[in-house]
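Archive transcription. Copying these from loose printouts into the bound notebook so they stop getting lost. Printout 1 of 2:
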Amino acid sequence: MDHDMPGMGGMSPPSPPQDHMMMSMGLTHMTFFWSKNAEILFSGWPGTRTGMYVLALIIVFVVSLFVEWLSNSNYLKDKMSNYNGLVKTFVHGLKIALAYLLMLAIMSFNVGVFIVVVAGHTLGYFLFGRCNNSESNACQA
């Protein structure tokens, strides 16, 4: 039984070389990986240098810490009560934008990025959020 289409002669079209396809599509990970050779948020950043990868991890950590501060800071909430809704809306938009950037950074599937985001949020909650819980006696003076 011959399943070839008429006029095709049974030949499949030639496929492009594998190296060319990898260069044109880029290397996109769809599973967690551990490597300093990652792209986080921007094409080519942080690149292949270890120092730039460490800098990227520090930036991601600080941003996740800042998101927790924006979410839980009593100082910010007290100061914001004097401002109008426009400033509160801007701060909320900033918090959401940074949270989405962190989500996109995690979608690089780099284990180091995942660890520093979780560590930043955890430390941020420890520093800023645990005293907002009304059941916590450890923070009350």
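Printout 2 of 2:
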Amino acid sequence: MLELRHLRTLIALRDAGSLVEAAERVHLTQSALSHQIKDLEERLDGPLFVRKSRPVEFTRVGERLLALAEHILPQVRMAERDLARLTGDEQGRLHMAIECHSCFQWLMPTIDHFRDHWQEVEVDIPSGHNFDPLPALAREQLDLVITADPQPLAGIHYEPLFRYEGLLAVAKQHQLAGNAFVTPRELADETLIAYPVEHTRLDVFTQFLDPAGVAPREIRTAELTIMMMQLVASGRGVCALPNWALTEYLERDYVRALPLGEDGVWSTLFAAIREEQRELPWMEDFLRTARETSFAVLDGIKPA
């Protein structure tokens, strides 16, 4: 019998492009996912996609099921929202802070989509306040904080959204541009361009430079990602950013990007919320929408 999980698996396989990444998205092992697909193919008496094709090439049977999934799953999601609103408290406040300068690329469409379905919830990103977001969350001044730097605070739950890789952006003519990766020592003579935040909140320091006992020759700050890219492209420094934040500039051949170390530096982005709000229907829906939107608009991220 065809089940919703089968449809969700096919959507994940199409969007991820491989069994390995699709399995991560639906929170299964690759073996379990393969077994699920094989079982479905046996029931349908035919393959769903061409093996070893990348991106995945679906058969006519697979394409028909994908069309069904695209029609059915949004309706199921809408019904789930309606039921949550009927059985729960529709009213609420979602004031949030973002400890991530490049998060707006996925956060703004998330907020727009959420507002369309939860008009009774007041959504805002307050500005002009001088406070640490996470303690402010504990004091109920905020309701959600996007952070990659969780702190042990009583009553605060950290919901993982996705994992991302930090990359070093360099000018196309930079001496490191042809390297397979960069080592901490190679940054000792560089000007590192960073957002104007404490170094303890930047992965390039906490996970890469500090453990190696290396400091860049100079640190220069810039408020906006595009300003950082202009400085990098003109040879006035290098900068470390999440892989998704560099996608546009790499596609335009504006800069080059290198992994931080041979194995790369991966981090997890969290949504911090108060424990008592974890099971609120609209909060659960916001977190689910954030994950879905992230994977729809960002390249190179992985399930947390």
